[in-house]
Amino acid sequence: MKIGCPSEIKPQEFRVGLTPNAAQEAISHGHEVIVQSGAGAGAGFEDEAYSAVGAGIVDSAEQVFAEAEMIVKVKEPQAGERKMLREGQLLFTYLHLAPDPEQTRDLLASGCTAIAYETVTDGRGGLPLLAPMSEVAGKLAPQVGAWTLQKANGGRGVLMGGVPGVGPAKVAVIGGGVVGTHAARVAAGMGADVTVLDRSLPRMRYLDDVFGGTFKTMYASAGNTAEIAREADMVIGAVLIPGAAAPKLISRAQLSEMKPGAALVDVAIDQGGCFETSKATTHADPIYEVDGIMHYCVANMPGAVARTSTIALGNATMPFMLALADKGWKRACAEDENLLNGLNVHAGKLTYGAVGQALGIEV
Ligand code: NAD
Is 262 in the pocket of ligand 1 (CB under 6 A)? Predict the structure, then answer.
């Protein structure tokens, strides 16, 4: 199969769909790979790294889309890219169609077959192509929160780990899933005093079993959340209710009860945010202040560490990409229910129930 990887064109997106390692694996399976010149540069992969493993370098996205049977990307295709998709072409990337009727309409009109990273499953109720980005965002959250806490950035001027004779920062992590666990581990590793709040008792049992000496757990009742927020130097929002907007767990009124200069890091901002005062920011201008409390609300946190994120995503997508290339999408999906769950669009039809429901389109 001829596999094509164009440059990402969404603003602030530095990741790339295929790493040189992934290209090499595909080539060793007998496939041909073409990469748009410069596609990997934002993640530190120059054209030479792709040509060294036998991939072809082409000048334009038009060439990639015209020649490739499967397009491997990171972000959903933008309007100009969607015009280049054609009947029978396979698209493997993040799509997030439910809130995006325009993209859905264009994909249906193109006649392509689109498999969305975010709905591929792993048989244990997990989402293996979303998890790596949650791991990245989780590990990044205390790092950006620590920076936000610095005085020059408007923060409280508190050092995460303290120093001999001065206690550490108090960090509350609301939501103990993939993001929350990684955030809590890094915050604890920096020496902070960390409490994870969740509403799932089985999850807290698991966290307590595995990380009992590293951080504490607490049930996320409204009362506990309010109390812990009042004492915190940093609160990391990491909740997820699948298919729903994030619940608002700290109100504007509560900000005045918090310590001045405390930091709120709202990782759940891509689901609307879990603090009432959250609004999405960008890497170019990531923080703002409301009522003396500093907010960090970047919606695509993994983009800040594009190289790590690209490699992590590539590791997760590679076996699926190879199965699609080796067997063709029909047999690959017939033999793997988890990959089949990724199928969102085929030949002008929506094939994913939740997206159809969200957009009022028959599936
Ligand atoms: P997850 O499903 O692994 O974990 C979510 C956790 O939240 C679960 O343990 C759940 O029990 C808990 N929860 C749900 N409602 C709660 C409540 N009211 N109070 C306390 N806990 C509650 O999800 P995840 O992969 O960790 O993702 C968390 C959030 O981070 C999501 O909104 C996701 O979209 C977002 N995310 C953002 C970025 C970014 O760049 N900003 C990157 C990756 C993920």
Answer: no
